[in-house]
Amino acid sequence: MSGFASWPEPVVRVQSLSESGMRAIPERYVKAPSERPSFTNETENHHKHVDIPVIDLTNLFGEDPTLHEETVRLIAVACKEWGFFQAVNHGVSHELMERTLEAWRHFFNMPLGFKQQYANTPTTYEGYGSRLGVQKGAILDWSDYFFLHYLPDSLRNQSKWPSQPSCCRELLSEYGAEVVKLGGRLLKAMSANLGLKEDYLQNAFGGEDIGACLRVNFYPKCPQPDLTLGLSSHSDPGGMTFLLPDHDVAGLQVRKNGKWITVKLVPSALIVNVGDQIEVLSNATYKSVEHRVIVNSVKDRVSLAFFYNPKSDLLIEPAKELVSEERPALYSPMTFDEYRLYIRTKGPCGKAQVESLGSI
Ligand code: OGA
Ligand code: NI
């Protein structure tokens, strides 16, 4: 509901560019030198073995209170220091993860004519898209995507989800249900560690009436990966994100102390990150951290980003319990509907948006 009915320029599918065999990418994908990926930094982290924390969630679901508390503590430390972690033993079926990812790979490998029937517009963003933001003349990212609503039921419209491959809709329904369950467990852990009631964050998100949507990203291989990005630096505007990435192609980078760390994927992990709404509710105890995606010249990459969001018309503001004279509210209240207009208009802009809420 961004109010924009159409894209400012004709839509070009990045996958078509990639498949055309061109040796040089068009100028509108060439980033300013300061934004380009630096492959030297990446080598540096590699030597230092710096990476986002890996957390085993087995004991979050278990009975032992000491082990449970220790897991909650690890989650909180990760949310404070990194805004990101890789969850293993998270309860989402590995087979389901693999099959869902495979179904989407299949979708993106369908003929362009089939995918075009799902072409999206900036009004709701639902469907097959190739840009984020409606700024005319913007430098674009090297990716296509498919965006859809999972919750609430009133926005979920399976006829807007791909009809092919035929297993896609069913797999997605199942996968989403498991991820939503995991999201509820994590919100409890995050609330408890803030000293709030266990159901605080879930209630702030609207209880049962949360929002959830999915963006499936497709990053085609790129002849000049050093000049562009698959997805420019941004923080996720929503509550919390569950990323299921391609297992054999790296690409996600997380910003830590001004440096870009390339995430090394642990098999069967889901990458969890804090979005802007949780940063606001926690009054900046938990951090919504900038991340971006680099591309490569060898392999296409697919990822599923499942966004677990607050009900879109609720006011989101720092929890009163976390506001005091010494630590005033760092953000002004806003609904998620209003909040997400920004990225839908301007495209990815690092942390500019959440920082703009701080001017109260
Ligand atoms: C996103 C995102 C990362 C990736 O969709 O918001 O950050 O690796 N995706 O695709
Ligand atoms: Ni993101």
From TrEMBL:
Keywords: Dioxygenase, Iron, Jasmonic acid signaling pathway, Metal-binding, Oxidoreductase, Plant defense. Belongs to the iron/ascorbate-dependent oxidoreductase family. It catalyses: jasmonate + 2-oxoglutarate + O2 = (1R,2R)-12-hydroxyjasmonate + succinate + CO2. PROSITE patterns: FE2OG_OXY. Its cofactor is L-ascorbate; Fe(2+). It holds the Pfam family 2OG-FeII_Oxy. This is Fe2OG dioxygenase domain-containing protein. One of its GO terms (molecular function) is metal ion binding. It comes from Hibiscus syriacus. Residues 209-310 form the Fe2OG dioxygenase domain. One of its GO terms (biological process) is defense response.
